[in-house]
């Protein structure tokens, strides 16, 4: 790195060869996404919406979890945006609960970005809704870097994925507001060590509130609903 | 993760900076990459080498400032750097784990050197 930094002056390096001039930039490489995310956030909060970004590995049970949530909480008018590489199967499943749903098929892109969510939101009626749920593409790596404008980042991990999961994906867990441990109905069958996973979650992401549920049976969902209601209360107040 | 896409974004920022500064070419791009940014420096270098060909930045070096994960301990009211290989952030003062990230997620162009 050059020894001194001056804008507009040619520098000579220690070896006497001409160096250029330094222009300070200080710009995030994903700045464009962050700008759109901020605009999304302001727009969604303006409608009094609580916006969830739901993330996990493929197959952790995001869609089943959301289907359960939307079915149990029909008292909360909801809009849903589902991201997948292909098919609208997930959107179809969630539409059955009565929510307004749009599907984003990314083609090959492995994560959702703020611009995609902004475009999908244009196709939804946000007025009168309380909840906007974004089901991200199944992937614990790339989605972590893309702010979508959410109010809460919810990371799902299922009992079949191993207790070390939080250590393997530090960024996504460290940026989670809530961690939902799913498929608890299978815990005994797979020899799941809940204490070990909770210890890893406490160490890796102490900022996250942890829930243990079975989306399939409904067990444990009550605690998550209480958490949502608390956050919804705050979202409603913010919009006024 | 997406090093080619990241390299193209970096190139765009560098070329735009050169254009606004009325410079003919870019000789160096300074980056700041956090420990949890999810971008691997060598892979990024390879991707940038591909992306810069045939542009005013085709001979530009990439200089990377690596930023460690830094967290804040609420109990001690102090920041601390994390070098645990799993990214577990325990305050060296009191031992409590922290999820309050103050640095380490950066993926930024800090400066561009032009001629």
Overview of this structure, please?
The complex is a heterodimer of chains A (240) and B (115). Chain A is of the alpha/beta class. Helices cover 36% and strands 22% of the residues of chain A. Chain A has helices at residues 31-46, 62-72, 89-95, 114-122, 165-168, 170-174, 187-190, 194-204, 221-239; strands at residues 11-12, 18-19, 21-28, 50-55, 78-84, 100-105, 131-135, 152-158, 178-182, 209-212. Chain B is α+β, with helices and mostly antiparallel strands. Chain B has helices at residues 3-20, 41-51; strands spanning 26-34, 61-67, 69-73, 78-82, 101-103, 107-114. In chain B, a hairpin with a 4-residue loop joins β3 and β4. The model of chain B has no long low-confidence stretch (mean pLDDT 95). β3 of chain A pairs antiparallel with β6 (107-114) of chain B.
* Largest interface, counted by CB within 8 Å of the partner chain's CB: A-B, 33 and 37 residues
Helix count of chain A equals 9
Global mean pLDDT of chain B: 95
Helix-strand sequence of chain A: EEEHEHEHEHEEHHEHHEH
- Give the DSSP E fraction of chain A (strand runs of 2 or more residues): 15-25%
Question: What is the C-alpha radius of gyration of chain B, as a whole number of Å?
Answer: 17 Å
Main sheet summary of chain B: 3 strands, mixed
List the main descriptive attributes of the protein structure presented here.
heterodimer, A: 240 residues, alpha/beta, 7-stranded parallel β-sheet, two-stranded antiparallel ribbon, disordered N terminus, B: 115 residues, alpha+beta, 3-stranded mixed β-sheet, 32% strand
Itemize the secondary structure elements and their pairings.
The complex is a heterodimer of chains A (240) and B (115).
Chain A: E1 11-12, E2 18-19, E3 21-28, H1 31-46, E4 50-55, H2 62-72, E5 78-84, H3 89-95, E6 100-105, H4 114-122, E7 131-135, E8 152-158, H5 165-168, H6 170-174, E9 178-182, H7 187-190, H8 194-204, E10 209-212, H9 221-239
Parallel strand pairs in A: 4-7, 4-8, 5-6, 5-7, 8-9, 9-10
Antiparallel strand pairs in A: 1-2
Helix pairs in contact in A: 1-4
Chain B: H1 3-20, E1 26-34, H2 41-51, E2 61-67, E3 69-73, E4 78-82, E5 101-103, E6 107-114
Parallel strand pairs in B: 1-2
Antiparallel strand pairs in B: 1-6, 3-4, 3-5
């Amino acid at each position: 790195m050059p020894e001194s930094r001056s804008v507009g002056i040619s520098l000579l390096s220690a070896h006497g060869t001409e160096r250029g001039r330094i222009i300070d930039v200080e710009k995030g490489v994903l700045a464009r996404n962050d700008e759109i995310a901020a605009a999304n956030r302001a727009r969604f909060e303006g409608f009094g919406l609580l916006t969830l970004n739901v993330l996990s590995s493929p197959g952790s049970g995001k869609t089943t979890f959301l289907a359960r949530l939307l079915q149990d909480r029909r008292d909360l008018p909801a809009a849903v945006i589902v991201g997948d590489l292909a098919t609208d199967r997930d959107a179809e499943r969630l539409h059955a609960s009565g929510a307004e749903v749009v599907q984003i098929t990314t083609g090959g892109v492995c994560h959702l970005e703020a611009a995609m969510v902004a475009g999908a939101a244009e196709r939804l009626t946000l007025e009168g809704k309380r909840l906007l749920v974004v089901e991200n593409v199944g992937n614990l790596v790339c989605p972590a870097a893309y702010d979508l404008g959410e109010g809460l980042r919810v990371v799902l991990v299922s009992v079949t994925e191993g207790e070390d999961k939080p250590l393997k994906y530090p960024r996504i867990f460290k940026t989670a507001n809530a961690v939902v441990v799913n498929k608890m109905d299978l815990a005994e069958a797979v020899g799941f060590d809940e204490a070990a996973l909770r210890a890893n979650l406490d160490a890796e992401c102490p900022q996250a509130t942890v829930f243990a549920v079975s989306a399939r049976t409904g067990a444990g969902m009550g605690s998550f609903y209480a958490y949502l209601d608390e956050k919804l209360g705050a979202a409603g107040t913010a919009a006024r | 993760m997406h090093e080619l896409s990241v390299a193209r974004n970096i190139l765009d920022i560098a070329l735009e900076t050169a254009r606004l500064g009325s410079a003919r070419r870019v000789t160096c791009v300074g980056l700041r990459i956090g420990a949890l940014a999810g971008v691997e420096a060598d892979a990024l270098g390879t991707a940038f080498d591909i992306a810069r060909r045939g542009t005013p930045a085709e001979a530009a070096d990439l200089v990377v400032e690596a930023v460690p994960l830094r967290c804040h301990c609420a109990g001690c009211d102090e920041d601390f750097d994390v070098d645990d290989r799993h990214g577990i952030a325990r305050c060296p003062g009191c031992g409590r784990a922290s999820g309050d990230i103050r640095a380490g997620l950066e993926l930024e162009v800090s400066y561009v050197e032009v001629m």
